[in-house]
Amino acid sequence: MAKIIGIDLGTTNSCVAVMEGGSPKVIHSAEGRNVIPSVVDPIKRIVGDVAKRQMVMHPKSTVFSIKRLMGRKYTDKSVQYDIKWLPYTIKSGRDSMAVVEIDGKMFTPQEISAMILQKIKADAEAYLGEKVTEAVITVPAYFDDSQRQATKQAGEIAGLTVKRILNEPTAAALAYGLDKKHTHTVAVYDLGGGTFDISVLELGEGVYEVKATNGDTHLGGDDFDKAILDYFAEEFKKEHSVDLRKDSQALQRLRDAAEKAKIELSTSLEAEINLPFVTQGKEGPLHLVMKLTRAKLESLVGDLIKKTIDPVAACLKDAKVTKDKIDEIVLVGGMTRMPKVIEIVKEFFGKEPNKSVNPDEVVAVGAAVQAGVLTGEVKDVVLLDVTPLTLGVETLGSVATPLITRNTTVPTSKSEIFSTAADNQTSVEINVLQGERPMAADNKSLGRFILDGIPPASRGVPQVEVMFDIDANGILNVHAKDKATGRSQSIKITGSTGLSKDEVEKMTKEAEAHAADDTAKKEKIETRNKADNMIYVAEKSLKDAGDKVAADIKKEVEEKISALKSILDSGTKEDLESKTKDLSDSLQKIGQAMYQEQQPPPTNDIGTKTDKENGEKKDKTKKDDIQEGEVVS
Amino acid sequence: MTKKLNDEDIEKIKQESDGWKAKYLRALADYQNLEKRVGEQKQEFVRYAAEKLIYELLTVLDTLEKAQEHLNDPGLTLGIKNFKVILEANGLKKIEVLGKKFDPLEMECIEVVGESKKDEVIEELRSGYKLGDKVIRVAQVKVGEKSNIN
Question: Are residues B82 and B114 in the same domain?
Answer without folding.
Answer: no
